Amino acid sequence: MEILKQIARTIEEGDAAAVPRLVGEALAAESSAKAVLDGGLIAGMNAVGEKFRVHEIFLPDVLLAAKAMYAGLDVLKPLLERAGVASRGRVVIGSVQGDLHDIGKNLVGIMLKGAGFEVIDLGSDVSAVGFVAAARSHEARVIGMSALLTTTMPVMKEVVDLLKKENLGGRIKTIIGGAPVSRDYAEEIGADAYGYDCAQAVERVKELAAAS
Amino acid sequence: MSDGLLARIQRGEVLLADGAVGSLLLARGLEKGAPPEGINLSAPQVLEEIARLYLEAGADIVQTNTFGASPLKLARYGLAAQTAEINAAAVRAVRRAVNGKAFVSASCGPSGRLLLPYGDIGEDEVRDSFLRQMAALADAGVDALCVETMTDLREARLALEAARRAAPGIPVMATMTFEATPRGFYTVMGDTIMAACRGLSESGADLVGSNCGNGSALMAAIAGEFRKETRLPLVIQSNAGLPELRRGEVHYPETPEQLARAARELRAGGVAVIGGCCGTTPEHTRAMRRALDKVA
Q1: Which of A15, A52, A56, A59 to substitute to test the interface with B, most B CBs within 10 Å?
Q2: Contact A40, A7 (CB under 8 A)
Q3: Are residues A98 and B33, on separate chains, in Cβ contact within 8 Å?
Protein backbone atom coordinates (compact mmCIF):
# COMPACT_ATOMS: atom_id res chain seq x y z
CA MET A 1 0.00 0.00 0.00
CA GLU A 2 1.62 3.22 -1.23
CA ILE A 3 -0.13 5.41 1.34
CA LEU A 4 1.15 3.35 4.27
CA LYS A 5 4.69 3.59 2.96
CA GLN A 6 4.19 7.33 2.64
CA ILE A 7 3.07 7.49 6.28
CA ALA A 8 6.15 5.56 7.35
CA ARG A 9 8.40 7.90 5.35
CA THR A 10 6.68 10.98 6.79
CA ILE A 11 7.27 9.65 10.29
CA GLU A 12 10.94 9.14 9.48
CA GLU A 13 11.04 12.78 8.36
CA GLY A 14 9.45 13.82 11.66
CA ASP A 15 6.65 15.75 10.00
CA ALA A 16 4.03 15.80 12.78
CA ALA A 17 1.76 18.12 10.81
CA ALA A 18 1.48 15.83 7.78
CA VAL A 19 1.01 12.47 9.51
CA PRO A 20 -2.58 12.92 10.79
CA ARG A 21 -3.70 14.06 7.33
CA LEU A 22 -2.10 11.01 5.69
CA VAL A 23 -3.58 8.71 8.31
CA GLY A 24 -7.00 10.21 7.51
CA GLU A 25 -6.43 9.56 3.80
CA ALA A 26 -5.42 5.96 4.45
CA LEU A 27 -8.54 5.36 6.55
CA ALA A 28 -10.71 6.99 3.88
CA ALA A 29 -9.17 4.58 1.37
CA GLU A 30 -10.43 1.78 3.63
CA SER A 31 -7.24 0.74 5.33
CA SER A 32 -8.03 -0.60 8.80
CA ALA A 33 -6.74 1.27 11.82
CA LYS A 34 -4.63 -1.77 12.68
CA ALA A 35 -3.10 -1.82 9.18
CA VAL A 36 -2.25 1.89 9.40
CA LEU A 37 -0.70 1.35 12.83
CA ASP A 38 1.42 -1.61 11.73
CA GLY A 39 2.25 -0.70 8.15
CA GLY A 40 2.55 3.07 8.69
CA LEU A 41 3.33 4.26 12.20
CA ILE A 42 5.23 1.29 13.54
CA ALA A 43 7.01 0.57 10.27
CA GLY A 44 8.20 4.18 10.28
CA MET A 45 9.42 4.05 13.87
CA ASN A 46 11.17 0.72 13.30
CA ALA A 47 13.12 2.27 10.44
CA VAL A 48 13.99 5.25 12.63
CA GLY A 49 15.09 2.96 15.46
CA GLU A 50 17.38 1.01 13.16
CA LYS A 51 19.00 4.15 11.72
CA PHE A 52 19.55 5.44 15.26
CA ARG A 53 21.14 2.16 16.27
CA VAL A 54 23.73 2.40 13.48
CA HIS A 55 24.36 6.12 14.21
CA GLU A 56 22.95 7.23 10.88
CA ILE A 57 20.68 9.65 12.72
CA PHE A 58 20.73 11.15 16.23
CA LEU A 59 18.35 11.57 19.12
CA PRO A 60 16.68 14.78 17.82
CA ASP A 61 15.57 12.90 14.70
CA VAL A 62 14.16 10.08 16.81
CA LEU A 63 12.31 12.50 19.06
CA LEU A 64 10.75 14.36 16.14
CA ALA A 65 9.76 11.05 14.55
CA ALA A 66 8.16 9.97 17.83
CA LYS A 67 6.18 13.21 17.95
CA ALA A 68 4.98 12.57 14.41
CA MET A 69 4.03 9.02 15.33
CA TYR A 70 2.04 10.19 18.36
CA ALA A 71 0.19 12.69 16.16
CA GLY A 72 -0.87 9.77 13.96
CA LEU A 73 -1.69 7.59 16.94
CA ASP A 74 -4.08 10.23 18.30
CA VAL A 75 -6.17 9.77 15.15
CA LEU A 76 -6.07 5.97 15.36
CA LYS A 77 -6.62 5.50 19.08
CA PRO A 78 -10.43 5.86 19.19
CA LEU A 79 -10.74 3.56 16.17
CA LEU A 80 -8.43 0.93 17.67
CA GLU A 81 -10.42 1.04 20.89
CA ARG A 82 -13.75 0.84 19.06
CA ALA A 83 -12.52 -2.15 17.09
CA GLY A 84 -12.76 -3.77 20.53
CA VAL A 85 -10.28 -6.55 20.08
CA ALA A 86 -10.77 -8.76 23.11
CA SER A 87 -8.13 -7.90 25.71
CA ARG A 88 -5.23 -10.32 25.89
CA GLY A 89 -4.58 -9.18 29.44
CA ARG A 90 -2.62 -6.50 31.21
CA VAL A 91 1.07 -5.72 30.86
CA VAL A 92 3.02 -3.39 33.14
CA ILE A 93 5.95 -1.70 31.40
CA GLY A 94 8.63 0.81 32.37
CA SER A 95 12.28 1.83 32.12
CA VAL A 96 14.23 0.64 35.14
CA GLN A 97 15.43 2.79 37.98
CA GLY A 98 18.19 5.20 37.07
CA ASP A 99 17.31 5.07 33.40
CA LEU A 100 15.58 8.11 32.00
CA HIS A 101 15.44 6.84 28.45
CA ASP A 102 12.03 5.70 27.39
CA ILE A 103 11.69 5.87 23.63
CA GLY A 104 12.09 2.14 23.04
CA LYS A 105 9.82 1.33 25.93
CA ASN A 106 7.15 3.70 24.56
CA LEU A 107 7.27 1.98 21.21
CA VAL A 108 6.83 -1.43 22.76
CA GLY A 109 3.88 -0.02 24.71
CA ILE A 110 2.20 1.23 21.57
CA MET A 111 2.73 -2.06 19.78
CA LEU A 112 1.40 -4.03 22.72
CA LYS A 113 -1.74 -1.88 22.68
CA GLY A 114 -2.00 -2.49 18.97
CA ALA A 115 -1.80 -6.23 19.67
CA GLY A 116 -4.73 -6.02 22.09
CA PHE A 117 -3.03 -5.78 25.47
CA GLU A 118 -4.01 -3.34 28.19
CA VAL A 119 -0.77 -1.51 28.93
CA ILE A 120 0.06 0.15 32.24
CA ASP A 121 3.06 2.35 31.48
CA LEU A 122 4.95 3.32 34.64
CA GLY A 123 7.26 5.67 32.74
CA SER A 124 10.99 5.85 33.39
CA ASP A 125 13.15 5.51 36.53
CA VAL A 126 10.89 2.77 37.95
CA SER A 127 12.09 0.84 41.02
CA ALA A 128 11.81 -2.93 41.48
CA VAL A 129 9.21 -2.39 44.16
CA GLY A 130 7.30 -0.05 41.82
CA PHE A 131 7.12 -2.70 39.08
CA VAL A 132 5.96 -5.45 41.36
CA ALA A 133 3.43 -3.34 43.25
CA ALA A 134 1.89 -2.11 39.98
CA ALA A 135 1.76 -5.61 38.50
CA ARG A 136 0.05 -6.88 41.62
CA SER A 137 -2.51 -4.10 41.92
CA HIS A 138 -3.39 -4.20 38.20
CA GLU A 139 -3.40 -8.00 38.14
CA ALA A 140 -0.98 -7.89 35.22
CA ARG A 141 0.25 -11.06 33.56
CA VAL A 142 3.53 -9.64 32.36
CA ILE A 143 6.11 -7.06 33.46
CA GLY A 144 8.16 -5.55 30.62
CA MET A 145 11.39 -3.76 31.57
CA SER A 146 13.66 -1.62 29.45
CA ALA A 147 17.21 -0.36 30.12
CA LEU A 148 19.51 1.71 27.96
CA LEU A 149 22.40 1.85 30.43
CA THR A 150 24.49 -1.09 31.56
CA THR A 151 24.62 0.44 35.02
CA THR A 152 20.84 0.23 35.47
CA MET A 153 20.43 -3.39 34.34
CA PRO A 154 20.77 -4.92 37.84
CA VAL A 155 17.32 -3.49 38.66
CA MET A 156 15.91 -6.08 36.24
CA LYS A 157 17.32 -8.84 38.40
CA GLU A 158 15.88 -7.18 41.48
CA VAL A 159 12.40 -7.40 39.92
CA VAL A 160 12.83 -11.08 39.07
CA ASP A 161 14.13 -11.80 42.59
CA LEU A 162 11.35 -9.80 44.23
CA LEU A 163 8.68 -11.70 42.30
CA LYS A 164 10.23 -14.97 43.46
CA LYS A 165 10.41 -13.77 47.02
CA GLU A 166 6.74 -12.81 46.99
CA ASN A 167 5.79 -16.12 45.36
CA LEU A 168 4.60 -14.37 42.23
CA GLY A 169 7.23 -15.91 39.95
CA GLY A 170 5.46 -17.93 37.29
CA ARG A 171 2.20 -16.07 37.81
CA ILE A 172 3.64 -12.73 36.72
CA LYS A 173 6.07 -13.22 33.84
CA THR A 174 9.00 -10.94 33.02
CA ILE A 175 10.44 -9.76 29.72
CA ILE A 176 13.44 -7.47 29.32
CA GLY A 177 14.94 -5.43 26.50
CA GLY A 178 17.04 -2.42 25.58
CA ALA A 179 20.37 -1.73 23.89
CA PRO A 180 22.78 -3.30 26.43
CA VAL A 181 20.44 -6.20 27.30
CA SER A 182 20.89 -9.65 25.79
CA ARG A 183 19.26 -13.05 25.76
CA ASP A 184 22.17 -14.31 27.84
CA TYR A 185 21.50 -11.69 30.49
CA ALA A 186 17.81 -12.63 30.55
CA GLU A 187 18.79 -16.25 31.16
CA GLU A 188 21.38 -15.29 33.75
CA ILE A 189 18.90 -13.37 35.91
CA GLY A 190 16.02 -15.76 35.30
CA ALA A 191 13.76 -13.43 33.31
CA ASP A 192 11.10 -15.30 31.35
CA ALA A 193 11.88 -13.69 28.00
CA TYR A 194 14.02 -11.25 26.04
CA GLY A 195 12.90 -8.99 23.21
CA TYR A 196 15.57 -8.00 20.69
CA ASP A 197 13.32 -5.38 19.13
CA CYS A 198 9.77 -4.10 19.48
CA ALA A 199 8.22 -6.66 17.16
CA GLN A 200 9.95 -9.56 18.90
CA ALA A 201 9.00 -8.17 22.30
CA VAL A 202 5.32 -8.22 21.35
CA GLU A 203 5.53 -11.81 20.10
CA ARG A 204 7.21 -12.93 23.33
CA VAL A 205 4.63 -11.11 25.47
CA LYS A 206 1.85 -12.90 23.56
CA GLU A 207 3.48 -16.25 24.37
CA LEU A 208 3.99 -15.31 28.01
CA ALA A 209 0.42 -14.09 28.44
CA ALA A 210 -0.97 -17.23 26.80
CA ALA A 211 1.10 -19.42 29.11
CA SER A 212 0.24 -17.62 32.34
CA MET B 1 47.38 28.20 47.00
CA SER B 2 48.74 31.45 45.74
CA ASP B 3 48.18 30.90 42.02
CA GLY B 4 44.78 30.33 40.47
CA LEU B 5 43.90 27.33 38.37
CA LEU B 6 44.25 29.13 35.04
CA ALA B 7 47.59 30.70 35.99
CA ARG B 8 49.06 27.29 36.76
CA ILE B 9 47.76 25.85 33.49
CA GLN B 10 49.16 28.81 31.57
CA ARG B 11 52.54 28.08 33.14
CA GLY B 12 52.35 24.69 31.49
CA GLU B 13 51.42 22.64 34.54
CA VAL B 14 49.26 19.55 34.05
CA LEU B 15 46.66 19.25 36.81
CA LEU B 16 45.19 15.99 38.04
CA ALA B 17 41.46 15.93 38.77
CA ASP B 18 39.80 13.35 41.02
CA GLY B 19 37.67 10.31 40.16
CA ALA B 20 34.14 9.02 40.64
CA VAL B 21 32.10 9.79 43.74
CA GLY B 22 28.82 7.96 43.16
CA SER B 23 30.19 4.45 43.65
CA LEU B 24 31.95 5.51 46.86
CA LEU B 25 28.68 6.98 48.11
CA LEU B 26 26.84 3.70 47.39
CA ALA B 27 29.58 1.83 49.27
CA ARG B 28 28.95 4.16 52.22
CA GLY B 29 25.26 3.45 52.44
CA LEU B 30 23.63 5.80 49.94
CA GLU B 31 20.41 4.10 48.89
CA LYS B 32 20.01 3.23 45.23
CA GLY B 33 17.41 5.45 43.67
CA ALA B 34 17.84 8.14 46.31
CA PRO B 35 19.10 11.50 45.06
CA PRO B 36 22.92 11.40 45.35
CA GLU B 37 22.86 15.06 46.44
CA GLY B 38 20.57 14.41 49.40
CA ILE B 39 23.63 13.28 51.33
CA ASN B 40 25.04 16.83 51.08
CA LEU B 41 22.60 17.80 53.83
CA SER B 42 22.16 14.50 55.67
CA ALA B 43 25.79 13.32 55.91
CA PRO B 44 28.29 15.91 54.64
CA GLN B 45 31.04 14.19 56.65
CA VAL B 46 30.89 11.34 54.07
CA LEU B 47 31.64 13.82 51.29
CA GLU B 48 34.49 15.19 53.36
CA GLU B 49 35.91 11.69 53.76
CA ILE B 50 35.72 10.99 50.01
CA ALA B 51 37.31 14.35 49.15
CA ARG B 52 40.14 13.58 51.59
CA LEU B 53 40.71 10.19 49.92
CA TYR B 54 41.19 11.90 46.56
CA LEU B 55 43.36 14.63 48.05
CA GLU B 56 45.58 12.01 49.67
CA ALA B 57 45.71 10.14 46.37
CA GLY B 58 47.27 13.23 44.84
CA ALA B 59 44.44 15.10 43.11
CA ASP B 60 45.06 18.79 42.37
CA ILE B 61 41.36 19.33 41.71
CA VAL B 62 38.57 17.86 43.83
CA GLN B 63 34.96 18.01 42.64
CA THR B 64 31.84 18.74 44.66
CA ASN B 65 28.90 16.34 44.80
CA THR B 66 26.64 18.68 42.87
CA PHE B 67 26.31 16.97 39.47
CA GLY B 68 22.53 16.78 39.80
CA ALA B 69 22.06 19.81 42.07
CA SER B 70 20.37 22.11 39.60
CA PRO B 71 16.81 22.91 40.64
CA LEU B 72 15.36 21.26 37.53
CA LYS B 73 17.09 17.99 38.41
CA LEU B 74 16.44 18.25 42.16
CA ALA B 75 12.75 18.80 41.38
CA ARG B 76 12.55 15.10 40.44
CA TYR B 77 13.00 14.40 44.15
CA GLY B 78 11.05 17.39 45.44
CA LEU B 79 14.26 19.10 46.55
CA ALA B 80 14.35 22.12 44.24
CA ALA B 81 13.56 24.54 47.08
CA GLN B 82 16.76 23.43 48.83
CA THR B 83 19.02 24.14 45.86
CA ALA B 84 21.10 26.78 47.66
CA GLU B 85 21.69 24.70 50.82
CA ILE B 86 22.45 21.49 48.91
CA ASN B 87 25.09 23.20 46.75
CA ALA B 88 26.60 25.19 49.60
CA ALA B 89 26.88 22.14 51.85
CA ALA B 90 28.73 20.21 49.14
CA VAL B 91 31.23 23.02 48.68
CA ARG B 92 31.81 23.38 52.42
CA ALA B 93 32.49 19.65 52.78
CA VAL B 94 35.16 19.62 50.06
CA ARG B 95 36.70 22.89 51.28
CA ARG B 96 37.08 21.47 54.77
CA ALA B 97 38.70 18.33 53.39
CA VAL B 98 41.19 19.92 51.02
CA ASN B 99 41.92 22.93 53.21
CA GLY B 100 43.56 24.94 50.44
CA LYS B 101 45.75 22.05 49.25
CA ALA B 102 43.68 21.44 46.11
CA PHE B 103 41.29 23.38 43.93
CA VAL B 104 37.58 22.94 44.60
CA SER B 105 35.71 22.42 41.34
CA ALA B 106 31.92 22.45 41.27
CA SER B 107 30.31 19.77 39.14
CA CYS B 108 27.26 20.89 37.11
CA GLY B 109 25.57 18.13 35.10
CA PRO B 110 22.68 18.25 32.63
CA SER B 111 19.20 19.35 33.67
CA GLY B 112 17.80 15.96 32.69
CA ARG B 113 15.27 17.70 30.43
CA LEU B 114 15.21 18.01 26.66
CA LEU B 115 14.98 21.44 25.09
CA LEU B 116 12.17 22.34 22.70
CA PRO B 117 11.31 21.36 20.01
CA TYR B 118 12.50 17.84 20.91
CA GLY B 119 11.53 17.98 24.55
CA ASP B 120 9.23 20.18 26.55
CA ILE B 121 11.30 22.97 28.07
CA GLY B 122 12.46 26.39 26.89
CA GLU B 123 15.97 27.81 26.97
CA ASP B 124 15.18 30.50 29.56
CA GLU B 125 13.93 27.97 32.09
CA VAL B 126 17.05 25.81 31.69
CA ARG B 127 19.39 28.81 31.91
CA ASP B 128 17.59 30.05 35.05
CA SER B 129 17.96 26.64 36.64
CA PHE B 130 21.73 26.64 36.07
CA LEU B 131 21.89 30.23 37.25
CA ARG B 132 20.34 29.32 40.60
CA GLN B 133 22.76 26.45 41.08
CA MET B 134 25.84 28.38 40.03
CA ALA B 135 24.99 31.44 42.10
CA ALA B 136 24.83 29.15 45.14
CA LEU B 137 28.15 27.51 44.22
CA ALA B 138 29.87 30.83 43.62
CA ASP B 139 28.57 32.20 46.92
CA ALA B 140 29.94 29.17 48.73
CA GLY B 141 33.35 29.86 47.22
CA VAL B 142 34.60 27.48 44.53
CA ASP B 143 37.83 27.71 42.51
CA ALA B 144 36.27 26.47 39.28
CA LEU B 145 32.95 25.43 37.78
CA CYS B 146 32.77 22.25 35.71
CA VAL B 147 29.89 21.91 33.26
CA GLU B 148 30.07 18.22 32.41
CA THR B 149 28.56 15.13 30.76
CA MET B 150 26.70 17.39 28.35
CA THR B 151 25.26 15.77 25.22
CA ASP B 152 23.34 18.78 23.92
CA LEU B 153 25.58 21.69 22.92
CA ARG B 154 22.65 24.08 23.31
CA GLU B 155 22.20 23.07 26.93
CA ALA B 156 25.95 23.26 27.58
CA ARG B 157 25.98 26.80 26.22
CA LEU B 158 23.06 27.78 28.46
CA ALA B 159 25.00 26.46 31.44
CA LEU B 160 28.05 28.46 30.38
CA GLU B 161 25.97 31.60 29.99
CA ALA B 162 24.67 31.04 33.51
CA ALA B 163 28.21 30.50 34.80
CA ARG B 164 29.42 33.70 33.21
CA ARG B 165 26.54 35.65 34.74
CA ALA B 166 26.59 34.08 38.21
CA ALA B 167 30.34 33.80 38.58
CA PRO B 168 32.13 36.07 36.12
CA GLY B 169 35.53 35.69 37.78
CA ILE B 170 35.55 31.92 38.25
CA PRO B 171 37.19 29.69 35.59
CA VAL B 172 34.79 27.34 33.82
CA MET B 173 35.57 23.93 32.36
CA ALA B 174 33.05 22.50 29.89
CA THR B 175 33.07 18.86 28.85
CA MET B 176 30.73 16.86 26.66
CA THR B 177 30.17 13.13 26.20
CA PHE B 178 30.80 11.65 22.76
CA GLU B 179 30.15 8.33 21.07
CA ALA B 180 32.35 6.78 18.42
CA THR B 181 30.32 6.28 15.23
CA PRO B 182 31.43 5.08 11.81
CA ARG B 183 31.47 8.76 10.80
CA GLY B 184 33.50 9.99 13.78
CA PHE B 185 32.65 11.25 17.24
CA TYR B 186 29.20 12.64 17.94
CA THR B 187 27.12 13.31 21.03
CA VAL B 188 23.81 11.45 21.17
CA MET B 189 22.19 14.72 20.08
CA GLY B 190 24.45 14.80 17.03
CA ASP B 191 26.95 17.50 18.06
CA THR B 192 30.49 17.15 16.68
CA ILE B 193 33.76 17.98 18.41
CA MET B 194 34.26 20.84 15.98
CA ALA B 195 30.87 22.32 16.87
CA ALA B 196 31.54 21.79 20.57
CA CYS B 197 34.86 23.66 20.40
CA ARG B 198 33.30 26.59 18.64
CA GLY B 199 30.13 26.76 20.73
CA LEU B 200 31.70 26.18 24.13
CA SER B 201 34.42 28.78 23.58
CA GLU B 202 31.92 31.32 22.22
CA SER B 203 29.86 30.91 25.38
CA GLY B 204 32.86 31.56 27.59
CA ALA B 205 34.45 28.22 28.53
CA ASP B 206 38.05 28.56 29.76
CA LEU B 207 38.80 24.87 29.24
CA VAL B 208 36.98 22.44 26.95
CA GLY B 209 37.04 18.69 26.51
CA SER B 210 35.23 15.47 27.23
CA ASN B 211 34.18 13.32 30.15
CA CYS B 212 32.32 10.03 30.55
CA GLY B 213 30.98 7.65 27.93
CA ASN B 214 34.36 6.18 26.96
CA GLY B 215 37.37 4.38 28.31
CA SER B 216 40.88 5.74 28.02
CA ALA B 217 41.67 4.60 24.46
CA LEU B 218 38.81 6.44 22.81
CA MET B 219 39.34 9.41 25.11
CA ALA B 220 42.87 9.78 23.75
CA ALA B 221 41.39 9.92 20.23
CA ILE B 222 38.80 12.46 21.37
CA ALA B 223 41.55 14.60 22.93
CA GLY B 224 43.41 14.53 19.62
CA GLU B 225 40.32 15.78 17.77
CA PHE B 226 39.86 18.58 20.29
CA ARG B 227 43.52 19.58 19.94
CA LYS B 228 42.99 20.08 16.21
CA GLU B 229 39.94 22.28 16.71
CA THR B 230 40.84 24.64 19.56
CA ARG B 231 43.67 26.45 21.27
CA LEU B 232 41.89 26.46 24.62
CA PRO B 233 43.41 24.24 27.31
CA LEU B 234 41.85 20.76 27.32
CA VAL B 235 40.27 18.70 30.08
CA ILE B 236 39.73 14.94 29.73
CA GLN B 237 38.09 12.71 32.33
CA SER B 238 37.81 9.08 31.15
CA ASN B 239 35.73 6.28 32.52
CA ALA B 240 37.62 3.23 33.72
CA GLY B 241 36.42 1.56 30.52
CA LEU B 242 32.79 0.83 29.75
CA PRO B 243 30.69 -0.83 32.44
CA GLU B 244 30.18 -4.59 32.29
CA LEU B 245 27.99 -6.78 34.40
CA ARG B 246 29.87 -9.50 36.26
CA ARG B 247 27.71 -11.79 38.34
CA GLY B 248 25.06 -9.09 38.39
CA GLU B 249 27.41 -6.39 39.66
CA VAL B 250 28.45 -3.38 37.60
CA HIS B 251 32.16 -3.55 36.94
CA TYR B 252 34.49 -1.09 35.17
CA PRO B 253 37.36 -2.99 33.56
CA GLU B 254 40.27 -0.52 33.31
CA THR B 255 42.89 -0.79 36.04
CA PRO B 256 44.74 2.04 37.78
CA GLU B 257 47.83 1.10 35.72
CA GLN B 258 45.91 1.45 32.45
CA LEU B 259 44.62 4.89 33.39
CA ALA B 260 48.11 5.88 34.55
CA ARG B 261 49.52 5.03 31.12
CA ALA B 262 46.62 6.90 29.52
CA ALA B 263 47.34 9.95 31.69
CA ARG B 264 50.90 10.11 30.38
CA GLU B 265 49.61 9.87 26.81
CA LEU B 266 47.08 12.61 27.41
CA ARG B 267 49.79 14.83 28.85
CA ALA B 268 51.93 14.17 25.78
CA GLY B 269 48.90 15.12 23.69
CA GLY B 270 48.71 18.51 25.37
CA VAL B 271 45.83 17.95 27.79
CA ALA B 272 45.95 20.36 30.76
CA VAL B 273 43.51 18.74 33.19
CA ILE B 274 43.39 14.94 33.41
CA GLY B 275 40.97 13.12 35.66
CA GLY B 276 38.63 10.18 36.02
CA CYS B 277 34.92 9.68 35.58
CA CYS B 278 32.65 6.65 36.19
CA GLY B 279 34.40 3.61 37.61
CA THR B 280 37.57 5.38 38.70
CA THR B 281 38.65 5.26 42.32
CA PRO B 282 41.27 6.88 44.56
CA GLU B 283 43.54 3.99 43.47
CA HIS B 284 43.25 5.18 39.86
CA THR B 285 44.01 8.74 40.96
CA ARG B 286 47.05 7.58 42.93
CA ALA B 287 48.45 5.67 39.94
CA MET B 288 47.82 8.64 37.64
CA ARG B 289 49.60 10.93 40.14
CA ARG B 290 52.68 8.69 40.12
CA ALA B 291 52.64 8.54 36.33
CA LEU B 292 52.37 12.30 35.94
CA ASP B 293 55.08 12.96 38.52
CA LYS B 294 57.57 10.98 36.46
CA VAL B 295 59.55 13.13 34.07
CA ALA B 296 57.92 12.89 30.65
Answers
A1: A59
A2: yes
A3: yes
